[in-house]
Amino acid sequence: MSEPIHPLRIRDYRLVWLARFLSVNATSALVVVLGAQVYQVARTVNGMAPDQAAFLLGILGLVQFIPFALLTPVAGLIADKLDRRFVIAAATGIDFAIALVLGWANAMGAVTLPLLFALAAAHGAARVFIGPSLSAIVPNVVAAEQLPRAIAFSSIAWQSASVIGPALGGLLLARGSSLPYWYGAILLALSIAAILAIRPIPRPSVAKDAPLKLIAEGARYVWHERFLLGCVSLDLFAVLLGGATAMLPAFAYDVLHVGDEGLGLLRAAPALGASVVALGLSIAPISRQVGSKMLWSVALYGLATLVFGLSKNFALSLGMLAVLGAADGISVFIRNTLIQLNTPDDKRGRVSSISGLAISASNELGEMQSGLAAALLGPIGAVALGGAGAIVVTAVWSILFPELRRAKTFAPQYREPRKEPVK
Q1: Model confidence pTM above 0.85
Q2: In a domain, 422, yes or no
Q3: DSSP 335
Q4: CB-based contact 130:20 (threshold 8 Å)
Q5: What's the CATH number where 388 sits?
Q6: Does a structural domain hold residue 301?
Q7: What is the C-alpha to C-alpha distance for residues 377 and 368, in angstroms, rounded to an integer?
Q8: Over the stretch 304-347, which tens digit does the pLDDT of each residue have?
């Protein structure tokens, strides 16, 4: 049997890869600067104590999550019914407008906490439409046997951009508060151009039922497929407790005392670890004992978070963030591959939106949880306790969902007819 052609030899996959790299590069820079500015404005303009400012970082995650949660069912249905290219381009256009507004506000000295929170909510609304369509479009441009490698290379785009974006965001912020936003606007415009250059993709035939019925159908599919439910909920609860990124401004400014550029490095470190893993997976993808490897990687994520929370050394903190990023990269690769291969194409948008909601809930609600815990325990106690909680969740999930432990390969329970790759 001949070896499948490499995904990067497929024109439309290259465009998807480029669009993802550019948009994540831009938005990861914007998000780190948003958090930094919320913390700085709270401390310097509003005169808040470090714990109070850290609490606001948790609220920042909440305001991004609320529109994400409200719009997730609609976003998944839109990804299944409309042209996924246009959905991605339109939502990326919202982020482009946000970057322009914040660039102008910083240039004019008009940055306030209400403005930052309002535009963070708008970013949450844009992101909910990008995720399901971008995830569902990859299986449309590569054949099923190419999908694990394609997902691994997509992860390289995501993670490498997540290294470059925060690092450059912190570097540019130290030299001018509007510079990260102009940088983001340029990259987002290029991302839109790349998406619109993809050739038309035949849309799946979706039942012509009422929208609410179709939305419920996607939720029922995940609920009744225990394997999918276990994959989605593991990430939700483990990262919900173990998230450390929301507290990074507090660690950068008041625990490790490394300033704006140090904050950029802290935000980039998890993505650096994940990028190394993604590169390895693109060369030699995991194919055996996938379930147990996913569980162990989530447990390692929790352990690295715990050590980071207790660390007072900048080098050790960077190392632990890189380790937790690498562990998360393995978990995300396995989980995304399993979800895509176990979902029929006419439901991929809706299932991807549910998975995206779980990821957003784990990230943004995790930020809120960290903010509340920081108000009571301080940033160090909040992060350390969360890391321990992620380890406990992994152990519990291995018992509640034995299907995860028993998964040996990516062999799907659902199988589609083999399709020729789009060239």
Answers
A1: no
A2: no
A3: H
A4: no
A5: 1.20.1250.20
A6: yes
A7: 14
A8: 989 998 888 999 999 999 998 888 888 877 777 777 666 665 56
